[in-house]
Design goal:
- It comes from Spodoptera exigua (Beet armyworm).
- It is found in: Membrane.
- Its EC number is 2.4.1.-.
- Belongs to the glycosyltransferase 92 family.
- The protein is α+β, with helices and mostly antiparallel strands.
- The chain folds into 2 domains: 8-163, Immunoglobulin-like; 184-449, Spore Coat Polysaccharide Biosynthesis Protein SpsA, Chain A.
- The protein has 9 helices and 24 strands.
- It has helices at 8-23, 200-213, 227-238, 260-267, 272-282, 306-315, 351-354, 421-424, 433-449, and strands spanning 43-45, 48-53, 56-66, 73-80, 89-93, 101-104, 106-109, 124-131, 145-149, 160-163, 184-195, 217-225, 242-246, 286-291, 296-299, 328-331, 333-337, 357-359, 370-374, 378-380, 388-389, 395-397, 405-410, 426-428.
- Strands 1, 2, 3, 4, 5, 6, 7, 8, 9 and 10 form a 10-stranded mixed β-sheet that branches.
- Strand 5 and strand 6 (101-104) form a beta hairpin.
- Helix 2 crosses helix 9 (433-449).
Length: 456
């Protein structure tokens, strides 16, 4: 199979693969399991390695070290168009070992069966989970790489470096979080940017606000973006505030014909991969994760931060289980529609800061919600709430009175009807007023530095 052009992400994998090959210096030809050469690897797209099956494919994106629970685990983010998913095995490659340790992979379905899945011929998200506890008498160390095969002694066409693994450290009998975890408060995940038009002012506004609210880092995935957006992202990357990851979708090679509405519904599954990648890259770095879009903002009480808001919400929560952490804080959605604005409190190009007339009533329960999720317990992410937790998910629905409110800024009503409540049943909500002047000056400053069009 012809390999795709070299990309930064693929170059990184090649470097890691070469390093791992050099590390595994005592490979024996007598073993039935051979560490793959670079020429053995199959790529379906720039970011995706491939395992071909008789009736479909498995696409591999990334592997991650997960020490949060009783046993150390390796999690692998994959998509597959085969249903049911066949039995798969992890070949775990350890430092200075001559052959891998093979473990049966347990798939966690990254969607809901109640949402019409899995479907044969459609790429479905899974998180493959493999224990990586060493078999005696081997020392307890973390693996450096993992391959996925269809049999315990199968040849492999893929190898992934294991992100976050403590390669140089021995692992305790119970790998608790306390000795390794760096609980910086909050990471924000933006599923992807795919904008050919210039929305640089909106991106600067969004980033400056969440910086004031106390975000420690922002992970942004990009598909195709306007050159001015690249200038903005580089500015914040250089500050250490934004982490940018180039991204492409796993190919849908099935010949299954779908209507546009069905295709769009299946496309929702693709949004989950960057969110779960963001989760597993940060389980050791941040206590809370927020996945929101550029047209959304969870606004804390005036002059407060997200961290203080979360502390207040947790202090007022009793979930009936003293030793069980709260897995998510769920906020109801309030639309802020362009056509509902009676007046503007700032430049029209800064929609979040200038639009203050929101819907009086929130969206129906279960619709458009967003959550702060606890990274110590979540296994599978969704845009709105966690899908899978270590134990049954424990969530708190934030009361309409707050503290905090999710505002969703839209050009027009999301309903098909000519009229909708969000256009006429509105109230003035100027909670953002306490940040407005400061953030507007910051936006002007950033736009000037980057030689972008001014606000006015």
């Amino acid at each position: 199979m012809r390999l795709p052009p070299i990309s930064p992400r693929r170059s990184f994998y090649i470097i890691v693969t070469a390093f791992t090959i050099l590390t595994l210096t005592w490979y024996k030809d007598s073993s039935c399991m051979k560490f793959p050469e670079i020429s053995d690897l199959e790529y379906a797209a720039t970011s995706w390695q491939l395992l071909s099956l008789e009736n479909g494919s498995v696409y591999f994106y990334g592997a991650y070290w997960d020490p949060r629970f009783e046993e150390p685990l390796v999690r692998i983010l994959v998509y597959s168009d085969v249903s049911p998913l066949p039995k798969l095995y992890c070949q775990l490659w350890f430092p200075n070992d001559n052959e891998p340790q093979t473990e049966l992979a347990t798939p966690v379905y990254g969607w809901q069966t109640a949402w019409y899945g899995p479907v044969m011929g459609v790429n479905e998200p899974y998180i493959l989970t493999c224990t990586c506890r060493r078999h005696p008498p081997e020392k307890e160390v973390a693996p450096v790489a993992v391959s996925v095969v269809t049999g315990p002694c199968g040849e492999t066409s893929n190898v992934l470096n294991i992100q976050n693994a403590p390669f140089s450290k021995h692992i305790n009998k119970r790998t608790g979080m306390s000795s390794h975890r760096n609980d910086s408060p909050i990471v924000v995940c933006l599923k992807w940017l795919h904008y050919r038009n210039d929305i640089s002012t909106s991106l600067v506004e969004w980033l400056q606000l969440i910086k004031h609210f106390g975000a420690d880092e922002v992970y942004i995935y990009i598909l195709r973006i306007h050159p001015n957006l690249r200038k903005v992202l580089k500015y914040y990357v250089d500050q250490g505030f934004v982490v940018v990851t180039g991204f492409d979708h796993a190919p849908q090679v099935s010949g299954l014909k779908q209507s546009r509405s069905t295709r769009d519904f299946h496309d929702l599954r693709r949004e989950l991969l960057p969110l779960n990648d963001c989760l597993y890259r940060n389980i050791m770095q941040h206590a809370w994760l927020l996945a929101i879009d550029l047209d959304e903002m969870i606004v804390p009480p005036a002059n407060k931060t997200w961290s203080s808001m979360i502390e207040r919400l947790i202090a007022n929560t009793t979930n009936g289980q003293e030793n069980k952490p709260l897995d998510a804080l769920v906020f109801q959605n309030y639309f802020v529609i362009d056509g509902a604005q009676v007046d503007l409190e700032g430049p029209a190009k800064t929609r979040i800061l200038s639009h203050t007339w929101r819907a009086d009533a929130p969206s129906p329960p279960g619709s458009m919600e967003k959550s702060f999720v606890n990274t110590s317990s979540i296994i599978a992410m969704h845009n709105h709430q966690p899908l899978v937790c270590h134990e049954p998910c424990s969530v708190k629905y934030v009361d309409a009175a707050g503290p905090g409110r999710l505002l969703h800024f839209r050009e027009k009503c999301s309903y098909n009807e000519k009229d909708c409540p969000e256009l006429h049943d509105v109230v003035k909500d100027d909670t953002l007023g306490s940040w407005r002047q400061t953030v507007l000056e910051e936006i002007k400053h950033v736009l000037q530095i980057l030689d972008l069009d001014p606000l006015e």
